């Protein structure tokens, strides 16, 4: 699907995903919570409520919705009227930092993350919901207001590609970048929104987890962790040299003990992340760079 000659995502591939997801739908959030969030009595959240009008209070109205300012001005009790939203927003937060500018098979992590975003966007439009969100790299971020229109998805994809193309070499990223971006998201988030976070969440800070718990009070959150197979298993290729552009490290892949320790390091970080999220029943899935993005989402129960 991707063009192997370039580490960057191709817009044609992102548009083509629209046809690959035509028969698919997003799985229900409570099913994900049960399967991936460690909670088997999940309560289904309703759609968000949208303000409609203010009218005079009548018996049976919810007293919590009384508009005290209008009531004081008119000397008659008035209440706010809300209607259930016909569409539920789906919002993605996409990471495109140097941490994701790496890949050993098929595609770079940044490319995979963007393809997952595109698949979720096209599916959301198909099922009649609004789609938008926030993409960020180490230099800045872009917000796209959720709308039920193809132009919203295309705008998101174009802005994400622009952020990706600012990447030139792999590097490390602080989880504080995620904290900053989630704070930005909080300004735009409406109650009942479904949120997908797409990126690399290993070695997350306590501040990141705390911010997630704040957002969870008003939104359904799922984390999609993107990884490369080389991050888990080292091939037996003798002496290897890895570099992030600034530092170089030699690896002896013929050393069985070293390879085992390398794998254990990743698995320990993955288990730690699970333990951090478990008390809050936040679904966490992982998808490898060498997987087909749509099949990967289906295998993890995100799409059905």
UniProtKB/TrEMBL annotation:
Organism for this UniProt entry: Hydrogenovibrio thermophilus
Pfam families assigned to the protein according to its UniProt record, in alphabetical order: DUF58
Domain of life: Bacteria
InterPro entries the UniProt entry points to: DUF58
Protein name per the record: DUF58 domain-containing protein
Record-annotated DUF58 domain positions: 53-266
